[in-house]
Amino acid sequence: MVITDYLERNARLYGSESALVEINPSEERDKAQTWWDFNLIESASPDTPYRRELTWKDFDRRANRFANLLLSRGLKKGTKVAILLMNCIEWLPIYFGILKAGCLAVPMNFRYAADEIKYCLELADVQVLIFGPEFVSRMDAIQDSLPGVKMFYVGDHGPHYTEDCMSLMGFCSSSAPPVALSEEDDAAIYFSSGTTGFPKAILHNHKALICSCKAEQAHHGQTREDVFLCIPPLYHTGAKMHWFGSLLSGSKAVLLRGVKPEWILRSVTEEKCTIVWLLVPWAQDLLDAIDSGRIDLSRYRLEQWRLMHIGAQPVPPSLIHRWMKVFPHHQYDTNYGLSESIGPGCVHLGVENMHKVGAIGKAGFGWQTAIVDEHGAPVAKGDVGELIVKGDGVMKCYYKNPDASADVLRGGWLYTGDMAKEDEDGFIYLVDRKKDVVISGGENLYPVQIEDFLRGYDKIKDVAVIGMPHPRLGEIAAAIIEIKEGMDCTEEEINAFCQELPRYKRPRKIIFASVPRNATGKIEKPALRQKYCHGRLVEAQITG
User: Fold this and answer.
1) What is the pLDDT of residues 174-221, one digit of tens each?
2) Which of 221, 176, 251, 179 is nearest to 13 (CA)?
3) How does DSSP classify residue 361?
4) DSSP conformation class of 308
5) Residue 7: partners with Cβ closer than 8 Å, 6 or more residues away
6) Which string of DSSP letters, residue by residue, matches 250-266?
């Protein structure tokens, strides 16, 4: 079985039921119609956010039409087809159409600059690109340098170098194309987040997609009555693989284009959402809005909301304890994963393990884990080592990069580059990225531990700890601290709060500034190092 079989099953069994809803609160109701709006349902009320809906039957038919369009252009099995779109109701039918044609889907980060788009298209040997109006200026700048890439446009009045999907789709069959697929066939190329360097291309087969699909439903128990609110970008494995639980259960998912706390709660209320996956900054913003009185929870219907889960970055335990005080009826879960391990779920906490908040959990459904030293030997419980994982969701390789592949794939195990430890009950705690460890005066400092401590100070909204060069100690821990809106804070306050930390763990440099995060919520530490450390030694004042 391959992942497209589930879509076809849902179309047969639940064809007239809702599969996808797109809500775009920032759009006006007279927004220009897109390429397949002819069957989409809009909200009747003029003061309701812009809403479009797609049934399982139409989802499958549109995927078939797109697959047949690709085949009509001479594409063969194994051709790479890139998607450069904002989250929208067209995104997933395009993705499944690519797979149905036997091609490889290549989702692209919508934050990429023009040169990064060009780099990734060339790295992945992409022959076809589908993009939308938000990317026209970036594509204008590079399209002449991509003569081998055919371009389709999603929207009205596309650039002259693109083909209009609306007119072409009308000539294509809505029947499934006669392309045989197996679990071992290549399915998709994803790109690493780039938090430790320029993106690498990650190759997965259909077996990996199935692995993610089954793990997600095993972890969160989606049924046909559930409604999943999806906010993170679909180009990333995290959002899409969590949505796979909806695919497996045949249940509705809501794509919310926006992260304002009011929009999240309104969508949960109006669409009767039961499962919401948040990133750390969004959960913090929502709680801050409630604490400040800007949001009145009594205005919303939230009793059906059963599960809030977070992933994609280390989760501060203080945030979850704070969340459970506001939403005591919620189940909470966290999943750990990498794009190299087909997204979330290779390590999983489980809703039954709230007493272990702070841990990332144990091996997920169908996965094995180990924590090893620099020689690959298991470390003792409680000792820090590198987390490695094994399962059907491990990537085949870094595409066209055998050296990098050999560095992380050894004996069927994926070496994650994350430092972790295991407690006496077998629960794994993430310590830090191997490359983020700060070595100060011969001591290993793990930034995540310092960040978690600092987030316990009630004036701090977000924090990132990095290593700064130092002439005597080699490196010192520097804390970039973002203060909550409307509050004032001094370096003296932070230093006083840090007296509870062991002396060697206290940050030696305090910087009050915003903390940049990428679209999946990860702190952009390379950008911080470039801004605060590049090209100079920092003469830090040793505090305390």
Assistant:
1) 999 999 999 999 999 999 865 445 689 999 999 999 999 999 999 999
2) 251
3) B
4) E
5) 56, 59, 60, 63, 96, 247
6) T-EEEEES---HHHHHH
Domains of the chain in sequence order:
3-220 (3.40.50.12780), 437-532 (3.30.300.30)
What one-character-per-residue DSSP string does 18-82 give? EEEEEEETTS-TTPPP-TTGGGPPPPSSTTSPEEEEEEHHHHHHHHHHHHHHHHHTT--TT-EEE
Cα separation of 522 and 313, whole Å? Answer: 6
3-class SS at 200? coil
Residues 6+ apart with CB under 8 A from 265: 286, 295, 297, 300, 302
Whether the predicted model's global pTM rises above the 0.70 cut? yes
* Tokens at 196, concatenated: 């430790």
Judge contact between 477 and 465, C-beta under 8 A. yes
Each residue of 26-59: b (16+ CB within 10 Å) or e?
eeeeeeeebbbeeebeeeeeeeebbbbbbbbbbb
Residue indicated by tokens 């259909």: 206
d(CA 324, CA 451) in angstroms, rounded, equals 21
Q: Which two tokens stand for residue 544?
A: 């305390």
3-state secondary structure of 83: strand
